[in-house]
Amino acid sequence: AEYVIKNIQWTTCKDFTVQRGQEQIEEYISTWEFHESWLHWTQFLQEEDTKYSKRYHYRVCWSTPTRRKPIPRATASVYFIIEISKIKPATLPVEVFFVLETSRLIHRPGECRFREKWLKDIIENKIILMESL
């Protein structure tokens, strides 16, 4: 069976707000497959004004707290950017992409399948580094 990459209907540029962007990131994340032990929270970071667009930066912080360790030893962050074009028609959907904190690879919703292993690897590498210091 072939896997279908899930996506959501992203808002148009003219209807975008910072709050709407955060809600849509949460809606998009709900299409990802990950174990129920993962918790996350989303935070708006900043607005960036460029010549041809406005970019809105968000951070989604992930962790797996447990009863024995309610405060996680490390977290993993996924950074989202929602771009609003100043030159394309305002009726077009916003452009969205995201990167993992340890990677430069740019992911686009609807074009790649999220892997829970990405988050695990980030956290494991941080714990290994902390233990080596």
TrEMBL record:
InterPro entries, sorted: AKAP (IPR053084), AKAP_28 (IPR025663)
Top-rank taxon, per record: Eukaryota
Cleaved signal peptide residues: none
GO molecular function: protein kinase A regulatory subunit binding
Annotated GO CC locations: cAMP-dependent protein kinase complex
Coiled-coil regions listed: none
Protein name per UniProt: AKA14 protein
Organism name: Nothocercus nigrocapillus
Encoding gene (name): Akap14
